[in-house]
């Protein structure tokens, strides 16, 4: 969690044990661009922002103290990076930290996907061109690639750092054994280490606490949670029993055809009649009322106050939404009791062997040895 307040609206913190400092609220740009007709286009919805609107969001984000942008080559098939690039060209480059990703399919050719040396280098060069910059601050693998040896991937990323095209490297969407394998491999081979893990993390998706975040705590990596509002499910705007307006947002848009549901746009049907979900929302409403904050702000603040988190990635389709989300960056906090209450009401089922291990170790406190997040429920 960030500890030094430097500008109004946000705080700044290091990403893991690296020297890189970013605002504790990162602007995610998956909503920039419209490209539904591309054969490999990543999901978009009616609330996607065109270039003019995106630039206004970027301008306001920076005015509020933000300095950290997250994109990916696959977002609207490169349009997100292009939009950032035309805006970035008018900025002082050193003031902005740009993160992008590689792995997704960018065309129909057999080598246009994955984490091979060929695809990584080609993708990096293409991203640099779209972003209109000489370097990417944080270059991340978007997901594991079973077809490529991890040694090939990490050696290539190390080469990009050594030649100056990339400053730091990170990973996204890994499971525990993959995370530890990458960390150990970079140590063994003397390669540039990861500084971050970008992972879905929110009050409805806490399973990264079982494995991945333990690696991050032990190895000094910063966590960058994506979808902290679970695609909108944790905003509090959806009410029990109401009919969804399919043009109102990502969740409502997907609800008309839930076969297209994905992690960033989950199916509303799994929550509409879920008593545990409504109990969570009620608790968030009560806590929000005590602070004069919204349900969404409570959800974001809970994520931000987790000690392994460096910066939380928000999305915004309007200036008001951006300002509301940015308001979680500083100036208030949830109490210890409120954090524990949210932890309890949102706790997932803890399977074997985690439950047995954490219960057995509940009395084995050692302040020099990091403990699992969920262990505090015992």
How does this model look, in words?
The protein is globular. The chain has an 8-stranded parallel β-sheet. With 378 residues, it is of the alpha/beta class. It has helices at residues 51-63, 79-88, 117-131, 150-162, 176-189, 212-219, 250-255, 269-272, 275-291, 295-304, 319-326, 336-346, 354-360, and strands at residues 4-7, 10-14, 21-23, 25-28, 68-70, 97-102, 136-141, 166-172, 194-200, 222-226, 312-314. The chain has one domain (4-269, 296-331): NADP-dependent oxidoreductase domain (TIM Barrel, Alpha-Beta Barrel), CATH 3.20.20.100. Helices cover 36% and strands 14% of the residues. Keywords: Oxidoreductase. It comes from Mytilus coruscus (Sea mussel). This is NADP-dependent oxidoreductase domain-containing protein. Residues 25-346 form the NADP-dependent oxidoreductase domain.
SSE topology:
Blueprint: E1 4-7, E2 10-14, E3 21-23, E4 25-28, H1 51-63, E5 68-70, H2 79-88, E6 97-102, H3 117-131, E7 136-141, H4 150-162, E8 166-172, H5 176-189, E9 194-200, H6 212-219, E10 222-226, H7 250-255, H8 269-272, H9 275-291, H10 295-304, E11 312-314, H11 319-326, H12 336-346, H13 354-360
Question: In short, what is this structure?
Answer:
This protein has one domain: TIM Barrel, CATH 3.20.20.100. Helix content is 36%, strand content 14%. It is built from 13 helices and 11 strands.
**Approximate shape:** globular
CATH class division: Alpha Beta
> Helical amount among residues, as a percent range?
25-40%
What profile does the largest beta sheet have? 8 strands, parallel
Organism: Mytilus coruscus
Protein name: NADP-dependent oxidoreductase domain-containing protein
Domain NADP-dependent oxidoreductase: 25-346
GO molecular function, one term: oxidoreductase activity
